[in-house]
Specification:
Keywords: DNA-binding, Metal-binding, Nucleus, Transcription, Transcription regulation, Zinc. This protein is mainly α. The protein is built from 18 helices and eight strands. A hairpin with a 7-residue loop joins strand 6 and strand 7.
């Protein structure tokens, strides 16, 4: 379907200098809400401000970076008042409430209501997707049009999605010259929807930019409320009590997913009522729900990631690891042990009244805990990649947990298919945790050949995308890393992909062949090239780079791609939120 021509908006009648315009004509997306008018031009040209892509950029063959949700405006709406986040007892038919019933765009919202909001949060409840978004749709047309655009994109209705995206931006502009909390809330709700929309459509860098800016705005709001400081951590409450709490939860979840693939995040997250003094992880003796257990684990994974980043920075600067970092590592090691103890002691209550959707949560959380334990133990390793060989039993446990999750999903799918004749939607996408990051981590850090190949085999069978990452794309990158490290050392051996290590007499990948530092740079959008940066440490402060480009296509995330049909279907049954 041909996308409609997007009308120009606010076309100037004179040659006055303006501060608005797309990000290509102006600067990169702003990092702070209060910096809306402080922009420097990338090019000395005048932006025509067509939405969602500047026509000047398109007509000249340039890539338009878009506008994000951060451009300045002239009008301000009335204040929005939200109370405590609560579940909706009945589904609100917003297409009628907002006057879009019967219009082509209504199919986008109906799809969002029926499918998208169930799929995006994965297997966990989300106060944001299941309640707050619908409340905001009733109150503000910017959120309604953004939700409709996301639902239309999810249904693969690009023309409708484009029109609704444009409408959402037009309505959102009213809020963006205000600095009060109500305007920030609407902007953040729409920002999260836009982040998911961009990731779904393949706008990887723009999606992550929305995420990063949203995290900064959340810290600003919590600073105003006296919960934290501008240089302090973001506080994730165990039991959400406000709009801001629901926003912190959904942003922190997507942030965890992004940073596990090396997208830099400088935000510390703690589960508490207010920011603690220093790294403190107060794990309770038991968990009342899987969601509570997940919040504490998210905080620990965030801490492990930030500690690893500091260790990496010290490695490249050739400085000594401080006692403070060793104490932080010890705090994380202890907290991870306590988390597992609390999780095990809570199983009787957690496993009561299980629904098909809830049964995935226990193996998924164990999978992430195993990964976090390995990451924490090796976070300050320096250049010693041989240390990972001593954690082969942990990697074996991780793969067993992944196959256990696979079996649970398979059995649930077979029963569900027999009962309902389930048919998958066009695109498989989730904005929450799945098993792609732990499997990717296994491939790049576990050099045991059987385990490594098993992780790749599972990745290849995943016909969905978690944020910007699809199983097939990650598997291609993983295979390249494995091939470059192993070279031809196993070429004459029949290495089977299993969850059990092979014969102990197999040759070990030498330290000189192992990559110490691996990063991925995503393209601006699908159809571009991702760059895999792999670095080996040669000693005495010297590194050698081994980089590789990979084509990134949305086909990697569409379920119509030809994979094993049973695997495709039962994975889709999970990622589309069917109970």
């Amino acid at each position: 379907m041909e996308a409609p021509k997007v009308p120009r908006t606010n076309k100037p009648q004179n040659r006055r200098k303006v501060k608005t315009g797309c990000l290509t004509c102006n600067s990169a997306i702003l990092s702070q809400f209060v910096q809306l008018t402080d922009r420097k031009r990338k090019r000395r040209v005048k932006c025509d401000e067509a939405r969602p892509s500047c026509e000047r950029c398109v007509s000249t063959g340039r890539v338009c970076d878009g506008y994000g949700i951060w451009d300045s405006v002239s009008k301000a709406p009335g204040k929005l008042k939200y109370q405590r986040v609560s579940a909706l007892s009945d589904t609100i038919v917003l297409s009628q409430a907002q006057g879009v019933s019967g219009k082509p765009c209504s199919i986008g919202f109906e799809y969002f209501r029926k499918y998208t909001v169930n799929k995006l949060p994965g297997v966990f409840e989300s106060g944001f997707w299941n309640s707050l978004v619908f409340q905001a749709c009733v109150e503000d047309p910017a959120v309604l049009h953004a939700a409709t655009a996301l639902g239309a994109a999810h249904k693969n209705e690009e023309a409708i999605s484009l029109v609704e995206y444009n409408q959402a931006i037009q309505h959102l502009r009213r809020h963006l010259n205000r600095l009060d909390n109500d305007a920030l809330r609407v902007s953040l709700i729409t920002c999260m929807i836009f982040a998911c929309l961009e990731l779904l459509r393949g706008g990887f860098k723009t999606g992550h930019a929305h995420l990063s800016n949203g995290m900064q705005l959340l810290r600003e709001i919590q600073t105003r409320q006296g919960i934290t400081s501008l240089d302090g951590p973001i506080v994730l409450r165990t039991h959400p009590q406000s709009v801001e709490d629901a926003l912190v939860e959904v942003f922190s979840r997507l942030n965890i997913q992004a940073m596990l693939f090396g997208q830099v995040s400088n935000h510390h997250i703690f589960v508490s009522e207010r920011a603690p003094d220093g790294p403190k992880y107060n794990i309770p003796s038991n968990f009342q729900s899987h969601t509570e257990a997940r919040k504490y684990l998210d905080s620990l994974i965030n801490g492990v990631y930030n500690l690893t980043q500091q260790g990496r920075n010290i490695l490249h600067s050739q400085k000594q690891v401080s006692d403070q970092l060793y104490r932080w590592k010890e705090e994380l090691d202890i907290a991870l042990i306590r988390w597992l103890q609390a999780f095990n002691s809570s199983q009787k209550g957690l496993l009561a009244n299980l629904t098909p959707r809830k049964m995935y949560r226990t193996p998924l959380l164990r999978l992430y805990h195993t990964m976090a334990t390995i990451m924490a133990a090796t976070s300050l390793r320096g250049t010693d990649e041989m240390i990972f060989d001593s954690y082969n039993p942990n990697f074996e446990a991780l793969l067993r947990q992944a196959t256990e999750l696979w079996d649970v999903m398979h059995n649930a799918y077979l029963a569900f298919k027999k009962l309902t004749g389930y048919v998958m939607p066009a695109i498989c996408f989730t904005a929450d945790m799945g098993f792609i990051p732990p499997l990717y981590y296994t491939v790049i850090k576990c050099r045991q050949p059987n385990l490594r190949r098993m992780a790749i085999k599972i990745l290849m069978s995943a016909p969905h995308r978690e944020g910007a990452w699809s199983g097939p794309l990650v598997a291609r990158m993983a295979r390249h890393i494995m091939a470059r490290e192993e070279e031809d050392m196993y070429k004459d051996l029949d290495i089977m992909p299993t969850c059990q290590p092979g014969h102990s007499e197999l040759p070990v990948v030498p330290h000189s062949s192992r990559f110490s530092d691996i990063k991925v740079s995503l393209p601006e959008r699908a159809g571009g090239k991702a760059i895999l940066f792999c670095n080996r440490y040669l000693g005495r402060g010297e590194w050698i780079a081994d980089n590789q480009e990979f084509d990134v296509s949305l086909e990697d995330s569409v379920s119509s791609r030809i994979w094993d049909s049973d695997a495709t279907a039962y994975f889709a049954r999970l990622w589309n939120g069917q109970n």
